[in-house]
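Customer escalation, tier 2.

The customer says the design service returned an amino acid string that "doesn't look like it belongs to this structure." They asked us to rerun it and document both sides in this ticket. The original structure tokens are below, unchanged.
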């Protein structure tokens, strides 16, 4: 009766432990580094899946080094793998472009989407002692970007795009050290990508006065990302709205997953999302309208749920 158990890391690994009624479906969910908003989402999602299915779905959350690693691991994972990543990154993998150039694999073409999760939101967090209140003020400052994550890559891109690469000192440290380094005055600020309220930004703002930097309209247009507003009061000491950029993110699996498992995961997610939003506001930002951001082919099991629920998808348009 028991079946495979694997990892769900920015991915959502799922293995069906039998076909009898009440059989347990075990999933491994892989998403992001511990301490980030996406890792915390994984924990919340695991709890919601267990509660919403009456214990029939068991999710194991696995730490990840970032979205690129999540996609790359598709090559070695089985039917129980679920992961999270921006849909655009799946497209790059399937086309063999950018960071996937020369690393194409047949497994990338087997990736299928399940459901959207809260979007990646860029945060540029500066200590108030640095007196930085705009991107231009980062000149001459020490910034921690981290390594390997979308936030690190996006942050480096923004520094170059806005002409700051040569005037900003990049701290050689992991993002997990950012809050302590900021509090101790070892850095002036850090860049992180996570749905708001992001846990590491909450922790930073609670331990030392910070400014979360807004991007102006020109910078947002230049970034080619989606404009998003972090409401005033989201973080301690944040008296005004912060305007920044975001990137859609979704949960994926592969064609190795059977249709019934994909259906149950997708159905349980949507039916329990409102309960998750009661304790974590970021889930409230997920609506059926986000389905338009999923450009990857849907898993047939997930598509079955959307058709039953009357939720529009690109496949139905």
């Amino acid at each position: 009766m028991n079946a495979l158990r694997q990892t769900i890391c920015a991915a959502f690994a799922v293995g069906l432990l039998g076909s009898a009624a009440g059989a347990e479906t075990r999933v491994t969910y892989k998403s992001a580094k511990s301490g980030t908003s996406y890792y915390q989402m994984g924990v919340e999602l695991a709890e919601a899946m267990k509660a919403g299915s009456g214990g029939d779905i068991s999710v194991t959350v696995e730490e990840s080094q970032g979205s690129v690693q999540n996609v790359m691991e598709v090559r070695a994972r089985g039917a129980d793998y679920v992961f999270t990543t921006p849909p655009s990154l799946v497209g790059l993998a399937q086309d063999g472009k950018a960071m996937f150039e020369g690393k194409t694999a047949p497994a990338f073409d087997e990736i299928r989407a399940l459901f959207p999760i809260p979007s990646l939101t860029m945060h540029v967090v500066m200590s108030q002692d640095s007196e930085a209140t705009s991107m231009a003020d980062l000149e001459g400052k020490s910034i921690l970007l981290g390594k390997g994550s979308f936030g690190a890559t996006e942050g480096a891109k923004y520094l170059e795009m806005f002409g700051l690469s040569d005037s900003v000192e990049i701290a050689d440290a992991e993002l997990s050290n950012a809050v302590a380094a900021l509090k101790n005055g070892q850095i002036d600020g850090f860049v992180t990508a996570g749905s708001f309220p992001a846990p590491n930004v909450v922790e930073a703002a609670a331990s030392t006065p910070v400014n979360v930097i807004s991007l102006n309209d020109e910078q947002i247009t230049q970034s080619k990302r989606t404009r998003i507003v972090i409401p005033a009061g989201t973080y301690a000491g944040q008296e005004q709205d912060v305007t920044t950029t975001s990137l859609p993110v979704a949960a994926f699996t592969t064609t190795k997953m059977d249709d019934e498992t994909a259906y149950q995961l997708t159905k349980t997610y949507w039916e329990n999302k409102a309960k998750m939003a009661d304790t974590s506001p970021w889930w409230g930002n997920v609506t059926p309208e986000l389905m338009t951001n999923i450009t990857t082919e849907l898993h047939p099991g997930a598509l079955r749920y959307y058709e039953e629920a009357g939720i529009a998808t690109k496949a139905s348009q």
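Tier 2 assessment: The sequence is consistent with the input. DSSP finds nine helices and eleven strands in the chain. The two ends are 39 Å apart (CA to CA). Sent an explanation to the customer and offered a walkthrough call.
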